[in-house]
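Weekly puzzle thread! Below is a chain. First person to post its structure in token form gets bragging rights.
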Amino acid sequence: MGPVDVFLVSFMKDDNGEFKDWAESNVTRHQVQETVLYCYYAMYGCLTLFVFLIIPFVYFYYEEEDENTNIKSRICGAMKYSACFLFAAVVLLMIGAFVPLKKPPVTNNATIANDLAFLANELRNTKGETALYFTIGFLTVIGFVCLVFYTGFGLVTLPADMIKGRKSVSTELDSVRNEANDSRQRRKTIRRKYKDTNRRISSRDRGKIDNLNDQEELLKRKERHLEALQARCCSKCTFLWRPFEITFGVLGCLGALLIFVSLFITSLDRAMHSLGVKTGYILPERHYPNPIDMVLLLSQQIFPLDYIIFASIIIFLFLTTITGIERIGIWFCCVKMYKLRATRTKPQALLFLCMILIFTVLAINTMMYTLAPEYMTYGNQKYVTENNSTEQCTTNEPEECVMSIAASLLTTFVFKLWFFGVFYYWANWAFLAMVLIGLVVSIFKSRRSSIEGEVDSDDTDNSDDDELLQV
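Winning reply:
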């Protein structure tokens, strides 16, 4: 929705800074912006519906799965637990609707009924906007937590892994076979100590033998997967797409560097020139050039190059988020809940993944105004100066330019609920720190296994047969 919003405000003016014929009337411009505003409300409402009703219901429906339960009991159990999420949504809406508003006026005959009537009148006047702002702001806070850990870590690891590539199948197969032989020799050595004696195997050596048996079973599964991969035709044609993988990895590194630099420059600008904490670190005027902002503004001269670049940034951040989730796993309250694995991801894990991505998209939507503030606010609008020359619209000339609905919503939201703006500001710095951590990990981490994600120590002995059935 962001590119469409930017396109509409940009399309209202010509290159000479004058409004086009269809956009000369304030009524027409207001109608267009009101339509876009309702679209944003509808999208936010759908996201809220998914987060608080649809995804929790489907998740608990799968959690209730058992041999002794039927569909009706599973639906009833899922509805019971989903009611808790609906209650949380109602609480957030009530907090957003009433807490940030001004207090009822003090009168001699003040009663609870009068106070409730005042609050209801305030809610009618704001059309419930503050309630929606607070709810979306709370979800965006969760999104920034996911953005910091998953997107920040994956921003570097994804292109770095593409450049490094994976281990050679033949080399890894030889290494696994050597490890299996070494494991068998160590087990035989322990048993040889008790072969010609009447002593019983000690508990310590019995534990070592059990660990070696488990390790050997894991190595056997790895060997079967590596042999199957080695026999595939695609494994023998790796050299064909390897140059493309390296090329996309280099482009990903450049994109990550551009995002890091742009976010750092704008965050530094806000730290030095913003209006302060109580305004959510709103920046009234830009002082430092922003690379992504400059690229998007220049690319607007060639339609639709700017939308292609904008979509590429969003897709890149989306893919890095999935990469971070794959590497780190799905955590909840410091407990690792699920892992993403090809053909073996549980339905509950996929639902968690969908919810994390919804939260992250909300955070990315907010972070884009830090990555490209001028572009996301005014697009390529120009205005006529006092010298009859045309200049690019900036925050210095708000009266001559039409602000995008998303930028207007974010500014209003931060002014009303400044503590959310403060959190978003410091979350950007935390994101930059996590990117540096991901960079250090990528530098010292070796290349990934050719079968990473296919074999795990938690697998059962018949897991390979299960996978064949799934295929």
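Puzzle host: Confirmed. Bonus trivia for everyone else. The beta strands are 330-332, 335-338, 382-384, 390-392.
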